[in-house]
Design brief:
The structure is a single chain. The protein is an alpha+beta fold. It has twelve helices and twelve strands. It has helices at about 5-20, 25-40, 50-60, 85-105, 120-130, 185-190, 215-220, 240-255, 260-270, 290-310, 325-335, 340-355; strands spanning about 1-5, 70-75, 75-80, 105-115, 135-140, 160-165, 175, 200-205, 210, 225-230, 275-285, 335-340. The strands form three sheets. It has a seven-stranded mixed beta sheet with strand order 2-3-4-11-5-6-7, sandwiched between helices. Strands 9-8-10 form a three-stranded antiparallel beta sheet, with helices on one face. A two-stranded antiparallel ribbon has the order 1-12. Helix 4 packs parallel to helix 5 (about 120-130) and helix 6 runs antiparallel to helix 7. The two termini are about 15 Å apart. The mean pLDDT is about 95.
């Protein structure tokens, strides 16, 4: 296991992206967000995504030099065209624009079309919270991984939802979740680490749970039947709620903004057609509803009560969303970002094919 410095991971990603043809300013935004994702402990959406991006590039389904641009701008709303490039720069632009509009109008909503995978949705919601605003982010997805409640085959993606709210004395509350029981790439991480997955993450074509990470990886990424369960798992445990949340995320991040629906796209897409992934960014200024001091005081009080709640296990205190990621960030800044040897080898191979040096360095 390599514990790589975040600086060397950023430099490695940046070198590979620019070698692929990404303009430096787009590559820098993408590298920054990918590293923040790894620092936060979301290993499925950081440097481990390089292999998937390389595959899209080789198949002509990713325009790495695509420059996102605003194509609609009306009052508190706008639309950004991602130019079929990686989603990070387009999503960053969209949330920054939503923040500007929220400061002017009290609320800002910006959609993105013609995009790709954009990393962890929480990175963009957190941008709003850092600006003193409430942020909401949803996205459609390229992969078809979720098996809807009562189904035997996947139809929806992991369709993420992220929400962030700034507090006063406390760090922002940041919820970042896939609407599946687990993100598809987390199954891949377990597969790379040769670890069994928890029961309930993945089901086979008959609805039975799969725990072998290699078999599960095949059901998620290779087989037409089976896949990942919605949040909640089976219907008896509330899986229909996760299914509903996934559909909501797609309606906002796909249907509303004009992005494609993966099952339909996969039946009709030509090799050089854009994937047309969509995102939705919402920023809300609490000052439009009440004085900021009262808002912050109330949210701080909510967090205080949650922190003071008696835990079932004294060794595991009650946390609020965003705190595990903050803890991970502090630990990984000090000790490095853990990377299994299988992932290190993949990065070496990608770097070699891109014609750049392997430059990851161990922390300490």
């Amino acid at each position: 296991m390599l514990h790589a410095t975040h600086d060397s991971i950023r430099a490695q990603i940046l070198a590979i992206l620019t070698a692929w043809g990404s303009p430096p300013h787009l590559a820098e935004t993408t590298a920054d967000i990918m590293v923040e994702t790894d620092l936060s402990g979301v290993d499925s959406h950081g440097i481990s995504m390089l292999m998937a991006y390389e595959d899209l590039l080789k198949r002509g389904q990713l325009r790495i030099a695509g420059e996102p641009r605003v194509v609609r701008d009306f009052a508190a709303t706008a639309m950004v065209d991602g130019a079929d490039g990686l989603g990070h720069p387009a999503a960053f632009m969209a949330m920054k624009f939503a923040i500007e509009k929220a400061r002017a109008f009290g609320i800002g909503a910006v959609g993105v079309v013609n995009s790709h995978h954009f990393g962890a949705a929480g990175c963009y919601a957190r941008l709003a919270a850092e600006a003193g605003l409430i942020g909401l982010v949803t996205s459609s997805t390229r992969g078809i991984l979720m098996v809807p409640t009562r189904a035997a085959e996947p139809v929806l993606g992991t369709n993420p939802i992220a929400f962030a709210a700034p507090a006063g004395k406390h760090k922002p509350v940041v919820l970042d979740m896939a609407t599946t029981t687990v993100a598809g790439n987390k199954v891949k991480v377990y597969h790379l680490n040769d670890k069994p997955i928890p029961e309930g993450w993945v089901q086979d074509g008959e609805g039975k749970p799969v725990t072998d990470s290699h078999i599960a990886n095949d059901y998620v990424f290779k087989h037409k039947e089976g896949g990942i369960t919605p949040v909640g798992g089976p219907e008896s445990l509330g899986g229909h709620k996760g299914y509903g949340l996934a559909l909501m995320a797609h309606i906002l991040g796909g249907t509303l903004v004009g992005a494609s629906f993966s099952p339909i796209r996969n039946r009709t897409q030509k090799p050089d057609d854009p994937n047309n992934i969509g995102h939705f960014m919402l920023a809300v200024d609490p000052r439009a509803f009440r004085d900021i001091e009262g808002y912050e005081s109330d949210l701080d009080a909510v967090i205080d009560v949650l922190h003071a709640t008696r835990p079932a296990d004294p060794a595991k205190p009650v946390l609020v969303p965003g705190e595990p990621e903050e803890m991970s960030r502090a630990k990984r800044l000090a000790e490095g970002i853990p990377m299994p040897e299988s992932l290190v080898q993949h990065v070496k191979d990608v770097a070699a094919r891109a014609g750049v040096d392997y430059i990851l360095k161990a922390a300490g």
